[in-house]
Amino acid sequence: MKIKKILIANRSEIAIRIARACREMGIKTVAVYSEIDRNSLHTRYMDEAYYIGKSPASESYLRIDKIIDAALKSGADAIHPGYGFLAENSEFVKECEKNGIIFIGPSRDSIYLLGNKTRARTKMKSSDVPIVPGTTEPVKSYDLLEQEAEKIGYPIMLKAAAGGGGKGIRLVKNESELKSAFEIASSEAKAAFGDDTIYIEKAIINPRHIEVQIARDNHGNSLWFPERECSIQRRHQKVLEESPSAAIDSRLREKIGRTAVKAADAAGYNSVGTVEFLLDEKYNFYFLEVNTRLQVEHPVTEMVTGIDLVKLQIEIAENKPIELTQDDIKLNGHAIECRIYAEDPEKNFRPSPGKVIGLRVPGGIGVRNDNGIYEGAVIPLFYDPIVGKLITWGDSRTQAIERMKRALSEYLVKGIKTTISFHRKILNDQSFIDGSISTEFVDNLLKIKNEPDKRLSEVAVIAAAILSEINKSHIAAGDDNNIKTGSSNWKNFGMRMGLCQQCL
Amino acid sequence: MYYVGLKEEESKVEVSGRRGSIFDVEIDGKLRQVDFVKAENSYSLIIDGKSYEIDCEKSKNGYDIWMGGNYFQVSVLSEAQKRIQLSKKGKKSGGPQIIETEMPGKIVLVKKVTGETVKKGETVVVLEAMKMQNEILSPKDGTIEEMYVKDAQMVEASDKLFKIK
């Protein structure tokens, strides 16, 4: 069935990304928005927009009833869930089905199977897909947890059975950390997924996080794409991703790719999705989980293959067979994505919601911006801190890195703190440049003190002094409005300077 | 004369003269001629033929400055302000300390009650913002003298969380 109108049950950059594909495909778009998002970019970008409730996600973007209501009112044929919120909620899929609305994503059975990490691990184990050692059952009590942890041996990872997106995960190095980690992981899991079930995996030391984008249709056709390297993480949240991985040659690429397809086949998967693996230092890989949604980092795959994954996802939802064959998937060059978070890297990455008072995004060859903000936009504290993604493409890894450094040097966000400067630090790090990274990379990098560039620091100091001098002369002239960047103040500057030479 | 601070370093800077857009700036005794002009939303500086593009916003203590993807938080004190700062120094005591939240969010867990003793680095309050749980730790060994927040409470940046003695 040809889809004519899609309700996008999400917000910010990913809602815009999906709407862009729809616009190119001639599909009408419907936005839903919470109270605080009335003026957000996604609300303004789409053809229609429906209010769905108060700002907390639990009263808006997580309200299945209100989203279905909006879909029925707008006459949308389909709902795209984006990532997060209801993207991996099989209840939501059921409600869509009940109301004759296509859910753009895998079937309810696949989500049910793969959405729960312990069920997925059991299934993969029986389908000959290698898994990380640990429990395949949820751990029901703290006492049992203690026993299981002892059996598996520290260090271990506690993980939310319903988990994803880095929430509800804690590394436990020894027994003394177990209780506090258990409490935090359960409560984070409860808050993020409404389910506090926890299971245990043995922690693999210095692993790389490698994932494979797959696509599988209702007719059993499947594809795998060149891997994404997502080892650059902080608190299990990806920070920077690239494709391909510097650690993987074409033989290993094909082996992991085929294993990913095997996992998708086992789950009867029917959409685009991502199979995540850990790669240990001996290049053994272990199944971690399947993300049954479009991933944040999907653009790097699009950049190296030229394939629009959202378009492919919509076509699969229309029940079309995939027209591409595995031979059509060619790896071309290298792509890197930097997630721009509203966080302050100088202050332990604390969230930095607020109003964007200035914004200049980079451009030029090989640069892609997937943004959810504009100058004047307000970043609410209710949702994920991601405000945009900057992606660069180059014909080699080195060129992609150089281009990313150049693009970041052009990037300016004022009013909120962002992780732009932290990305520069990553890209200048020798281990990163050498491609010798693991999921420990960010923790190690954070131990290195920032050495500010001496020359630029002096320029900043000089600029601050001159601005103070200009400011002082304003006050002396009876103008107590500080010179911010307002042009009216500046227009008068020359004249005032003429009037009060004695100030200098 | 200005006392301009960046990270841990402080420079003495004098803007001693100006011809048109050229400013004479003495920084730690070295003289620089700075061509300083404003474009629409930003400033252009040319120093010794080197060109710099900066953006800036007034901050609480000085200026926030962006330059080529770098971000600088610069504090500025006039001579009078510097004197006040110096006279205040040395008065710091080990008295009670009030911990404020640096970010807005929701209190999801209050782990300590008034009167309870805590160790340095121990979690006192858990605050959720942008879907992440942030543990607010005790800055020192001591006793909770007052707890200002309760479970499920929403807080704004710089709201008081607890007082520790």
Topology:
The complex is a heterodimer of chains A (504) and B (165).
Chain A: E1 5-8, H1 12-25, E2 28-34, H2 41-45, E3 48-53, H3 64-74, E4 78-80, H4 90-98, E5 102-103, H5 108-115, H6 117-126, H7 142-152, E6 156-164, E7 167-172, H8 178-193, E8 198-202, E9 208-216, E10 222-224, E11 228-234, E12 237-243, H9 250-266, E13 272-279, E14 285-291, H10 298-305, H11 309-317, E15 334-341, E16 343-344, E17 350-351, E18 354-355, E19 358-360, E20 367-371, E21 378-379, E22 386-394, H12 397-410, E23 412-414, H13 420-428, H14 430-434, H15 441-447, H16 454-476, H17 487-491, H18 493-499
Parallel strand pairs in A: 1-2, 1-4, 2-3, 4-5
Antiparallel strand pairs in A: 6-7, 6-8, 9-10, 9-11, 9-13, 11-12, 12-15, 13-14, 15-22, 16-17, 18-21, 19-23, 20-22
Chain B: E1 2-6, E2 9-19, E3 22-27, E4 30-38, E5 43-47, E6 50-58, E7 62-67, E8 70-78, H1 79-88, E9 97-100, E10 105-110, E11 117-118, E12 123-129, E13 132-137, E14 142-147, E15 154-155, E16 160-164
Antiparallel strand pairs in B: 1-2, 1-8, 2-3, 3-4, 4-5, 5-6, 6-7, 7-8, 9-16, 10-12, 10-15, 11-14, 12-13, 14-16
